[in-house]
Design a protein that fits this description.
By secondary structure, the protein is an alpha/beta fold. The protein has 20 helices and 17 strands.
Length: 546
């Protein structure tokens, strides 16, 4: 790839108000005020307004979005910090390498810096690709005019694919102008070597010496990153603060998806500094974040090149095995709702996984794990194992009561009772795409479940049952009243089995989608046979109703 410098961006000037007629001026100013939110702010009390931590990144764009500005935005968002951007260059880049670089004109970098710094007052500035000496000088000038709490310099020079992002001509302005202003500078091995005139760096001891020499250029802290040490070693970074060395060590994740780790680490450090952390805790948190993001993303496949991007939001992992739930909640899943019971499985000497497998084979359309007595650790392990089975069959798996277990195993949702965690709180914790069900006995509770953002309600006990003590029975009339009032799909529960499922479905109550059963499936010798029988009854009821 040739490193070329082209002016591709013109610098359009903002329209001058003096050229507009007076009536147009007032319209224009009004619109501007609206856009800037002045009208909204004027209506708010000062105590309603919250200043949030803010990082400005001054860096290059990576079209593949693994590194550069895109990584910075994602890292800051993942770390809960606002991020504004000044773009210094646009690269045509993917997982194979860098195919082209367009450096932005200095005066347009200046214009962006002015726009952001004069208005928004970020707490921390983080720099990435600074492709020309002129851009470094402009930035240093602006930082003097608009000082920030901390400057984090990631001295980007060469991409991992070996392509030049900032040539050697940049080194003197880095050493003489930018580094003396930095709270922390974060070179990788190659960059540290370049800053030190080509000093070979191959070991941990070399990293210590390099950190000390780079500290002499004036930054308060130097973090030499060891991502490029041999793959057999831990991922170790060395911090030197002018007095002491600190080693930050994590296991090395075996993954090709490390493109952008450097940008993301520096942005995460900037994010923590913006929140008010010390440098040492900022580096510790940032490094832990990179390690877990790499761990989550180790199997994701994006692009055909040797170095893929990773996922900052720890979300893509679930697609990695093609085993994620296909879509949002489908009320027809409530048709045959199997609820496990640890005591019954123990009594019949079967494992929870065997019970779930048999229920699904027999026709269960959703499974809820209700493990009242299990230790947390055992429950989590069972939940993970059952989830694997459910995913293989496209059957959603819900966890009774335990939002923490649902989160930890990434189950499809939870079912909560009236005295468990409120559904609206569970919704905040679980996010918009998980299933939440609520047990309701009255129209008021059904209404509340709807307002709280639940997906369905479980209504019962319809008939007397041994599974729940002191549980008043609603009868078919009570069930019908709640179904009529509900805005959510309903599954009937409580003492339902092969003998009475037909009577429940025959009610033809609005919103009633199916029956939930515990004992009728699990307090029997063969879960498979009982589920098959119940499935047959429900299908027949459906046919008859139609
Ligand atoms: N495989 C890995 N497992 C765990 N941590 C890693 C791994 N690879 C890199 N890191 C960590 O990621 C951070 C970035 O280090 P690295 O040396 O890769 O930066 P870089 O070369 O500037 O990255 P890039 O140029 O790809 O953005 C460091 O904290 C490093 O220890
Ligand atoms: C734009 C950009 N900045 C930084 C890096 C370093 O990872 C990269 N590859 N691309
Ligand atoms: Mg880097």
């Amino acid at each position: 790839m040739g490193f070329h410098c082209t002016r591709v961006f013109s610098t359009p000037k903002a329209p001058s108000f003096s050229l507009l007629k007076p009536e147009l001026i007032s319209v224009k100013v009004h619109q501007l005020n609206k856009v800037r939110g002045f009208e909204v702010k004027a209506a708010m009390q000062p105590e309603d307004q919250v200043r949030i931590p803010h990082v400005l990144t001054v860096a290059g764009s990576d079209s593949g979005a693994g590194a550069g500005i895109q990584a910075d935005l994602k890292a800051c968002a993942a770390r809960g910090v606002y991020c504004s951007t000044v773009i210094t260059a646009v690269t045509a880049q993917n997982t194979v390498g860098v195919q082209g670089v367009n450096v932005l004109p200095e005066d347009f970098v200046l214009e962006q810096l002015h726009s952001v710094l004069s208005d928004m007052r970020p707490d921390v500035v983080k720099t990435g690709m600074l492709p020309s000496t002129g851009i470094v000088k402009v930035l240093c000038r602006y930082l003097q005019e608009f000082p920030v709490r901390a400057l984090v310099v990631d001295p980007v020079m060469v991409s991992t694919s070996g392509d030049t992002l900032a040539g050697p001509s940049i080194l003197s302005s880095f050493r003489e102008e930018l580094l003396p202003m930095a709270e922390i500078v974060t070179p990788n091995l190659k960059e540290a070597s370049a800053l030190l005139g080509g000093m070979p760096l191959e070991s941990l001891a070399d990293m210590h010496s390099a950190a000390k020499y780079i500290h002499d250029f004036g930054p308060k802290n130097v973090l030499v990153k060891g991502g490029d040490l041999p793959a057999s070693l831990d991922a170790v970074d060395v911090l030197y603060d002018g007095e002491n060395y600190f080693e930050f060590r994590t296991s090395r994740i075996k993954t090709p998806n490390t493109h952008g780790t450097g940008c993301s680490l520096a942005s995460s450090i900037a994010a923590e500094l913006a929140k008010g952390s010390s440098v040492i805790s900022a580096v510790k948190v940032a490094k832990r974040f990179i390690e877990s993001a790499l761990g989550y993303s180790k199997n994701i496949l994006i692009g055909n090149g040797p170095q893929g991007p990773f996922d900052h939001f720890l979300k893509l992992k679930k697609y990695a095995h093609g085993s994620c739930r296909q879509s949002l909640f489908d009320p027809s899943n409530l048709f045959l709702y199997a609820v496990t019971d640890s005591r019954m499985n123990q009594k019949w000497d079967r494992s929870i996984t065997d019970a779930v497998k048999a229920a699904i084979q027999g026709g269960a359309t959703i499974v809820q794990l209700r493990e009242k007595e299990a230790d947390t650790r055992d429950f989590l392990e069972s939940a993970k194992a059952c989830l694997e089975i459910c995913r293989q069959h496209g059957v959603p798996l819900l966890i009774n009561d335990r939002v923490d277990i649902a989160l930890a195993c990434d189950a499809d949702g939870v079912h909560v009772g009236q005295s468990d965690m409120p559904a609206h709180v569970a919704r905040v914790l679980l996010g918009p795409d998980k299933i939440i069900g609520v047990s309701c006995k009255t129209p008021e509770q059904a209404q509340e479940a709807w307002v709280d953002g639940a997906d369905y309600i479980g209504c019962g006990g319809v008939y007397p049952t041994n599974t729940k003590e002191n549980n008043p029975t609603l009868g078919l009339d009570g069930l019908k009243t709640v179904c009529l009032a509900s805005k959510l799909p309903v599954v009937a529960i409580g003492g339902i089995g092969i003998s009475n499922a037909h009577s429940v479905m025959k009610l033809q109550a609005p919103n009633l989608k199916g029956v939930a059963v515990v004992s009728a499936l699990f307090d029997r010798e063969s879960v498979l046979i009982e589920t098959q029988k119940l499935h047959k009854v429900l299908v027949e009821s459906n046919t008859e109703i139609r």
